[in-house]
Structure formats: structure tokens, C-alpha cells
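Changelog-linked ticket: S-adenosylmethionine example.
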Amino acid sequence: MNLLRVTLHASHHPKNIKLYNKITTAHLHNQTSPSTLLYTETIPRYTKKPPQNRARIKGTVTTLQPNAIYLMDCIAGMRAMARQKMHADVIVTSPPYNIGKPYHTHNDNLPPSEYLDWMEQVAATCRTVMTDQGSFFLNIGSKPTDQWTPLELALRCKPYFTLQNVIHWVKSIAIPKADVGQYPHMQQDIAVGHYQPVNSTKFLSSCHEYIFHFTKTGDVPLYKHAVGVPYQDKSNIGRWKTATSDLRERGNTWFIPYETIQSARPHPTVFPDKLPEMCLRLHGLSRISLVLDPFMGSGSTAVACKRLRLKYIGFDIDPVYIAEAHRRLQRP
Ligand SMILES: C[S@@+](CC[C@H](N)C(=O)[O-])C[C@H]1O[C@@H](n2cnc3c(N)ncnc32)[C@H](O)[C@@H]1O
């Protein structure tokens, strides 16, 4: 059953009210939606200049439910989760990178120290809602003129988490045939995947992003074979004690290309839903009761959870992205 309980105050930005009403109407008319929207919001008055910081939406959530995406600030949302003693086994998310992306609501050009302070607060709050044997997968990239931010952000997480793994999300890669040996399926050099080319003589285009895998203790066992790859050389099967089947560990470089889409993207920074799927499989599906994405955006994590039959909860401050997430979740 879909539940919808909303209190709106008359001082909202008209643009947001219009969008918001569109969503709630669409939601009420679709009782088969897999998501539930249940919140009471108080949104502060918009001034001429839109607020620059994350605290623009203050939500008072009465009851949070799984399989729902809430229109609210993620720190407020996670605090509500903590009050309800609702814990996630896996947190997988991609926050704004502070690289000037044109989000509708969020300002992605915060002063660097303000951004890092905010991210540290997010990480600290994530810790309070993650189970002791849980995993926190934090995906972040950078811009050519500032390659430090992801690393500084990882350092800000150090007081709260152990960095158990660093995974490189490879978006594009070139592999010369001469470098790979005699693989029968490889006929020629290949260059696969998509990336945004940088117009510069000094910077390389960024073909990878980080996925920092944080845990509370650093000793969370993983299901490495759940994201394993078949042996190229089959004679390896049975050679070692661990090589019992035609599956070896993938390692920490994950090639996950963006889907090719012709139309305009409804969200400026979507990650492929295969990315959260692989994180969830690596942690172990049987060990997951609830997945959290504090920056749900257009719902890629929820889509992966739906496919894997896992419960999720998410937050975002933008009604348009949440509407897109609902559209995606309604697809068969
Ligand atoms: C990198 S995007 C996430 C994209 C998402 N992984 C997807 O595939 O669609 C970051 C998202 O964080 C949202 N956001 C920004 N500030 C927020 C806040 N304080 N609380 C919750 N969400 C926020 C933005 O609206 C944006 O959708």
C-alpha cells in the first residue's frame, strides 16, 4: 500500500511546489508503485538567491518505511532512521562531488572546506545507521583541476571507518591485442566504454572514479566470487586449493561502462545500476536486510535493489530526481 502524508507550507518556491504537486499527484494515482512516500516536510522560505547549503530542507519524518525514497536532507533522514533504530547492512552512494554539476537544487560549488565538513558529517551519520558488520561503499570522482578532493574526503572518513578496500570504477579502457597474449576471442586492439573528454593539453580525461569501501572494523568478509570472473586459462582450475571452479577474483578494478543513451539524461550524474549491484553482491546478498542510499538521485541503487529483491531506503532533496527514480522503478 502506498502511504502519503505531506504538510507543505505556503512559502515554498513556486517552481518546487509545481514539481512537487506533479509528483504527489502521479504518486497517488499509481497505487501499484513499488515505492512509498511518507513524510511531513517543512521547507524554509526561498529568498531571491537560492540557499547555498544542504540544510535547505528540514524534514520531520513521522515514520520511515523501507522501499521508499524520501524528499529530505540525508542527514535529517539518517537521524530519523537512527531514532527508529532502523539500520542498513549496506550503504552505497555517490554524493555530489563539488565539481560544479548543474543540479536543480543542490549547489555543487561549495567552498572546499565547507564541502569536506559536510561530507564528514554525512560519513559520521552513516556510521550511526550502519550495522557493525556492514559495508559503506562511497563512490566519488574528481575534476582535472582538483584531484585531491576524493582523497581528502576519504581521509575525513578515517575517524569513523576503516578503509577496507579501494575499488577503481573503470569507465573506459584501451587494451592493445599485443599486450594480452593469445586470447582466441580478441581479434584486434580494443577501446571500450565512454568518458567525458577533457579539452586540455595538460590534463588526461578521467576514465575512472573511486569506490571507497569502508567498514567499521576492517574485517568484514566478502563474497569475492559473487563478482568473480571466469579464468582465461582454464588450466588454472584445480591448480590451487581455492581454484575449485571456473571463477577467479575480479580484483579492485571494475569495468562498468555507462549505457549509451541518445536522449538527454534526466539527472546529470547517474551511475550505472550495475555499480551498486556489484557492491551489494560483493558484500553478500544473504547478509543484507536493508540497503541505504543517502543521495539517491534518480534511483540507480533502488533499481539494483529491486532487481536483487532487497529492501532499500533513500533520500534526495530534489523532487524531479525522485520522480525519475519512481519512473525507473515502475519499469518491469
Ligand atoms: C551524484 S548524485 C547521485 C546520483 C545517483 N547515484 C543516481 O544514479 O541517480 C547526488 C545527489 O545528491 C542529491 N543531494 C544533494 N544534497 C543532498 C542532501 N543534503 N541530502 C540528500 N540528497 C542530496 C542531489 O540532488 C543529487 O541527486
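Closing comment: Example verified and attached. Residues 39 and 62 are 7 Å apart (CA to CA). Residues 54, 73-74, 94-96, 103, 105-106, 267, 269-271, 295, 297-298, 300, 315-318, 321 surround S-adenosylmethionine (CB under 6 Å).
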